[in-house]
Give the backbone structure.
Amino acid sequence: MQDRVFIVIPAYREGPVLRETVESLLPYGYQVVVVDDGSDDGCLAHLEGLPVHYLRHPLNLGQGAGLQTGTIYSLEQGAGLIVHFDADGQHPVDQIPSLLEPIRLGEADVVLGSRFLKRSDLELVPVKKRIALRLGIIVSGLLTGVWLTDTHNGFRALSASAARKIDLRENRFAHATEFLDHLRLQRLRYREIPSTIRYTAYSIRKGQPISNGLDIILDLLLRKVMK
């Protein structure tokens, strides 16, 4: 069962780009799970004829909720390995085997992609985004005690046993820091590997503005104080 790979894709108003992303995954034999997070752009119609698992939130709940819904469903379907993958096609399909290899070899429970391990990958990151990501690394490290080179990269893989131990309650983008909390609390073995993010005009336009990053930091700080 370990070789049953499920790709979880949370999607909100991704339109025809979503179909291109899914079609790029299908030749590899992966089980693709699309979680429509309350889209109002006819998400299902864009997937017509494709052999995917389609789930839908009636309301827009956020990326964290989409990942949690898709992960739970994948485990129920007998997934041995789960990959989190962005809907906009910026993650490299051909790097999924490298992401899965440490888990298959028994060397890690969770593997995370990083844009900061190779100069060639780093140079593809827009300068403003690079600065915001560096700040995110510091904040997440201070809040969770888990220091990574890239804390907000959505390209990650989990073994089934690790996925069962991670329960995301942060529905929106702050889930990335919450995820690190689970790594520490559950004592999961993790590893980073280089990953190449393709920044297209669409993904940059659709991406998370720096102001949202500040909102995430404030939200996380408040939650830490309230605990």
